[in-house]
Amino acid sequence: MHRIILAIITFIFCLLWAEVKVEKVLETTSIKEYNQWVKRNKEKYPGLKLIYIQCETVREPDLRRLRDYVPEKTFDPPPTNPFTYEYKVSYYDDNGKIVKDEIISGYAAVYLSPNFDEILISKRDHPSYPEKRITIVKDKKGNVKFTLNDVFSLRAIDTDLYIEYADYEMGATSLRLFDGNGNVIGKLEGASAPFNDRLPAVSSFDKKFFVCGYLQEPDWKPGLVFLFSKTGEILWRKEFAWQEKAPWGLYPSISGNGNMIAVGHVNKVYVYKRNGELWREYSYEPPYPALTALSEDGRFLAVATRDAGTKVFLYDNVNGELVWSTKIEHFTPSLSNIITLAISSNGKYVGLQLRPNVVYLFGPKGEILKEWNLGGIVSHPAAPSGKRVTVHLGMSTYLQFIKDMFVIKYFNPEVSYIIERVEEK
């Protein structure tokens, strides 16, 4: 009798899980509409961030004229110089109203921070053989925070936290961490520029802990994964042997509370505690792991792998048991096809983006609850003016679960947002 009752309860519980409603709350390409929605719902969804900066590429080098032009060495080349870039940067207030526009030009590259509240400008005095470089960091109002002239380039990890960008060909043997005043607060010894340039580091929800992975492809050196704090303290470093079958880098993830770190490498996923102790190890036959995502408390682990289709797994990270697995047959992924993986705080839902720009939402049993075909080319889409939008640091598509909301941020052709409410009946 006890077994019968238990079976009935389990059956009812599964039915309850199966009844999930996904309802669109907001879909917009307007920063004004998005910011105002975030402001109205800030108390309930504090994880949503306002957008303060947007950047559009106005002009790129004219390849047809490069052979007939000898560029001068200067930080401020004239607009007629075919080697130059020109960017239009727009600054917004809390209500999504444009406060001011700014034109940036020269032998330059522009990067937005993950929070869209800072902009990093890298300039050099020559397009091919520079002798001098300068990096300028500006805040959400366009004010200069600090300037550096001894770095190849810089990437924002979080507000007031930056990581140096330089690879082995530039002689880099370590990468420095900088604070909001441009001071060095830490160093990642033995690392060169991250293979995963689209998102150089991921953090816990409270932004106290950060993890990043580096591919050391030259001379087949081991790949490196670092865990460090907001203050620049290096908590630990792990080495992963270079292997010919998996030379595409390391993409670690961290739980929302910062207690668990997962790393996919070759045919295994390693899960570590914050103190560096190995907690679990998951093994695979090919296809090899591509991306991992940990729930807020680290109890659930999502893994996306690639072969003739795309496989997605959800594990109970406490006991190591498989909760569900599924396969998407629609695409034949290459090394770069699996773009973004996210998991809800309770581990019940998983979001996945594949290239071309398709997003899937999986339910508690691995079923596809909804599919979005966002269309277009997400890496460098065309802006409404016919020009190209500058998209950096993995912001081509960004997936996030916030309580009962699933947030998709993407560019096609301008910055766009889809917010869906996921409810269990």
Q: Which terms would index this structure?
A:
46% strand; disordered N terminus; 2 helices; globular; mainly beta; 425 residues
Could you characterize what this model shows?
A hairpin with a 2-residue loop joins β30 and β31. The protein has helices at 2-18, 31-40, and strands spanning 20-28, 53-59, 85-92, 98-106, 108-112, 119-124, 133-138, 144-148, 153-158, 161-165, 174-179, 184-189, 202-203, 209-214, 223-229, 234-240, 253-254, 260-265, 268-273, 278-283, 289-294, 300-306, 310-316, 321-328, 338-343, 350-354, 358-362, 368-373, 388-389, 397-402, 405-411, 415-424. The strands form eight sheets. The protein has a four-stranded antiparallel β-sheet with strand order 1-32-31-30. Strands 4-3-2-29 form a four-stranded antiparallel β-sheet, with no helix packed on it. The chain has a four-stranded antiparallel β-sheet with strand order 5-6-7-8, with no helix packed on it. The protein has 425 residues and is mainly β.
